[in-house]
Amino acid sequence: MAPLVIETHHLSHAFRNRLVLHDLNLQVPAGSIFGFLGPNGSGKTTTIRLLLGLIRCPQNAIRLFGKDSRTHRLEILNRLGALIESPALYTHLSGRDNLEVIRLARQVDKKQIDRVLDRVQLSGDAHQKVREYSLGMRQRLGIAMALLGDPDLLILDEPTNGLDPVGIREIRELLIELSQQHGKTVFVSSHLLGEMEKIATHLAILNEGHLHFQGTMAQLQHLQSPVLSVETNDNMAAANLLQHAGYHLQESDAERLVVSISDRRQIAAINHLLLERGMSIYALQMHQQTLEDLFFTLTSHPETVENR
């Protein structure tokens, strides 16, 4: 088992007496791309600010590289790089000059500028003014800033937010390269499951400050269950009937119902129940729940997957 780079122990946090994080226990293995997923407002950025020491946390609630984040703060900061939302850039300076400002502050070797520019594929644009950069180029420059000092851990908050498909793909390929070829641990927050599905080795799903899932992508996929699409002559009446019989409806509208099922035998039971009540059945179709459907279920009806 890989050592843990990030550990939180019963981490909670409140703003003005309103609890926004509830008993969070994260475990991020070394060398992983760890996707930290949740809807907007779920507590992701608050967690990242706590990890970076931008918000004070209780002692021993956060351990990075096996050390308490409060008592070993400077040692830990020397081993990590971070990008929170959009990078703060001097748009009147070139990309290289922006990196020089950070290099001087961090007191690292000047040769690292060329190295990080090459890693984020900005070497050819290094002398261009940042105001002429696309949004994707600015995000890559922000990641280059985080890479100065050759950190072991990168913490990135929504790095693809607002990017077009080309920019998203560039960031995705960069993060995979940093993990697989350079041995970095990448902790990346996002609200886009589809994007994380393509790069993450491990995932945690947060909603309203509560952790609803943590594990590998394979473990998340194991939670996927079959669902049954149902079309009848009166979907609203059918929905009421199925809910009263104890079935969980993932979708319910005038066009169709989507019902969680555990096996094929429940298809026959649902068919029998609806026919017994005099309903006309137009379609019954079983298919596998998508990861997007599962993400929605975990963040809106977590109780339906707890016992799978």
From TrEMBL:
GO terms for molecular function: ATP binding; ATP hydrolysis activity. PROSITE patterns: ABC_TRANSPORTER_1, ABC_TRANSPORTER_2. It comes from the Bacteria. The keyword ATP-binding applies. Keywords: ATP-binding, Nucleotide-binding, Transport. CDD domains: ABC_BcrA_bacitracin_resist (cd03268). Pfam families: ABC_tran. InterPro entries: AAA+_ATPase (IPR003593), ABC_transporter-like_ATP-bd (IPR003439), ABC_transporter-like_CS (IPR017871), P-loop_NTPase (IPR027417). Residues 6-233 form the ABC transporter domain. Gene3D superfamilies: P-loop containing nucleotide triphosphate hydrolases (3.40.50.300). Belongs to the ABC transporter superfamily. This is ATP-binding cassette domain-containing protein.
